[in-house]
Design goal:
The structure holds two protein chains of two kinds. Helix content of chain A is 83%, strand content 0%. Chain A contains nine helices and no strands. In chain A, helix 1 packs across helix 6, helix 3 packs parallel to helix 7 and helix 6 packs across helix 7 (127-152). Chain B is mainly alpha-helical. In chain B, 75% of the residues lie in helices and 0% in strands. In chain B, 36% of the residues are buried. Classes of the chains: A mainly alpha, B mainly alpha. Chain A binds chain B through residues 144, 147-148, 151, 154-157, 161, 164-165, 167-170, 172-174, 176-177, 180, 196-197, 200, 203-204, 207, 211, 215, 218-219, 221-222, and chain B through 68, 117, 121, 124-125, 127-128, 131-132, 135-137, 140-141, 144-145, 147-149, 151-153, 155-156, 159-160, 162-166.
Amino acid sequence: MGATAAIFAKELRVEFRNRQTIVSYLLLAVLILTSFRFAFSTIGEDHTELAAPILWITIFFSGLLSLTPSYKREVDERTKEGLLLAPVEHQSIFLGKLAASLVVVFGLEVVTLVLFFGFFPFAFPDGLALGVILVLGTLGFVILGSILSAIAANLTQAGVMLMVLAIPVLLFTVVLSAVSATSEIFSGGGLSDVDSEWKLLTVFTLVYFAIGYILIDYILEA
Amino acid sequence: MRLYDSSRLLFLLWSAVLVLNGILLAFIIVPRHETMGDVQRIFYFHVASAWIAYVAFGVTFVASIVYMRTKDFKWDNWAVSSAEIGVVFTTLAILTGPMWAKAVWEVYWRWEDLKLLMTLVLWLVFIAYLALRANVPSRRTKATLAAVFSVIGMSCIPLSFAANRIWTQYHPTVIASDQGEIVTEGMLPALIVAVFAMTFLYLALLLMRVGIAQLQDRVDELKTRVGD
């Protein structure tokens, strides 16, 4: 636990030391939202059914981008060997980095949500239901995204390759369920209306966590 | 080690005979379909290609797990060879499907159909798998990361099966169907021959591709030795 906490603290320190990286994720989120807002104004203002996809596309892409450097910087700065030689389990590295990524992505999400409800004329839906789906969906895509980021760190073009690896496995699982639940919520549904989705998202989160916990040994030693 | 040894040539020859036989049966001997007409003849190639797509990715998945346990490049060679051929056959299935669908469903693709979506996801996962391999310089890293990704990709297939709440079954079910007779008696021989033909073609291609991968490893090994 101590090792996980140490890695978590180190990750956050590195992430916030270099402010330009965190600003670039925020900038991407703002630009995606602005692009959608512009497109939205050209098709008319009453398309509530577009709220969920717009929100999730923004969160998914800016979130995935923020996962890229998590493992990549260890390769770039030649600190990977040091990290692997440290007397800590690979699982602690995975957990520490995952926790730090979650802090960054949740932070991004708060800003995205504020902008989203500021920009778009959508009525604020059931807060509890939206919160639950956002948290579960984010957990799901950040856990698997973090594993894929560990793989992509060893590849040339790590940033693009993370997207290429993540979209086929995440789009039709987590994003699909999250978007369908969020649509339901935006059209007036509560937590009980998205019963099957939040359970499904919980299952995804657990399965991805298990996959990452088992496979991280192979990835870090590759 | 030779690429064209007798067993490989035999497989290739035998699959050529079967493929020709399959074409003959599907296009000439089988009667015209009562309701769908001639467009139905693509069915034999479509089903056989889709079958090989699933078999090939299954082989990649198993070979990847064995590689992760044994760290023997032999298994990585089987995994990548099967994945490459799998992508080709999935592409064939995805191309032949819409030709039939446009005539029968009046649309090329149905996004809400479960089988179509699964096949598309599989195709994308294994294209990403090949892209991953193309982006790693070191042999061992490539093999390990690709094996890990194929395990992740395959584990996501049942999950996307569960996630797709809106799915419906437009796609005809060939085996164990409750929608009545899909395969009538006249069609059965052509279907069996087509499936066997594609299976032997897959095996022949797989053996050749594994042979190439082994030769590549051998060349790399010799290069390192000369370099010393």
